[in-house]
User: What shape does this take?
Amino acid sequence: MVKYLFELQEIEMNILKKERELEGIDKAEEIKKYIMEDKKVRKHIEKIKCLKKKYKTESKLLEDHIKDIEKTKEEMKKKLYGGEIKDSKGLELLMEKEKRLETSIDTYTERMVEKIESQEKVEMELEKYVKKAKDMGARINELLKERKSKKEIVEENLHNLEREREDIKRIIPKGNLELYYTIKKKKVKPMAYAHNQICSGCHMDLPIEIMEKINKGNMKLCPNCRRIVVILGQ
Assistant: This one.
C-alpha cells in the first residue's frame, strides 16, 4: 500500500503545480500592462479632444470678431465715400480708423490661421492615438481569449488530477492516509524513498534496522525528517 501513498504524493504535487499555473494565468502581467497602457492612451485621447474643441472655439470666436470688424469697416466706408463727412479733419480721422481696422483684421486673421493649423495638428495626433487605442483593444481581446483557453485546459487537467486523487485515496487504508496527511501538515512531500540506505527527503543515512523493515514491505518513518520512507518499485 505504501506505493499508493507515493503515487498520491505525485498527484498532489501535480495538483499544486496546476494551481500555481492557474494563479499565473489569472495574474497575466502582460494583459495588465496592456490594460494600463490602454487607459493612458484613452485618457490622452480625451485631452486631445478637449484641446481640439478649445482651438475650434477660439478659431470661431476670432472669425466672428473679424466679421464684426469688417461690418464696422463697411459702415465707415459708406460714411467716407458717401459724402456724410464734409470736413477734412473728420475725413482724416475716419481714414486712420479704417487703417487701424485693417491692421486688426490682419492680426486676427493671422491668429485664426494659427488656431486652424493647431487644430489640424491635433486632429492628426488624435487620429494616431485612436488607431493606437483600437490596436491595443484588439490585442487585449486576443490575450483575454488566449488566457481563457489556457485556463480552461489547466482547469480540466486539475479536475482530472483531483479525480485521480480521490480514486487512489479510496484504496489506501484509513490509518495510512491519516498518517500521510498528518505529516503533510509539516512537509510538502510526506513521502521519501530509500536509495543506497539514504533518505531522499533529508539525504541522511537510514539505520540498518529501518532498512530491513522497509525491505520487508513495512511502512517506516525516517528517524531524521519523519517522512514515510519506501523503496522504489516496491
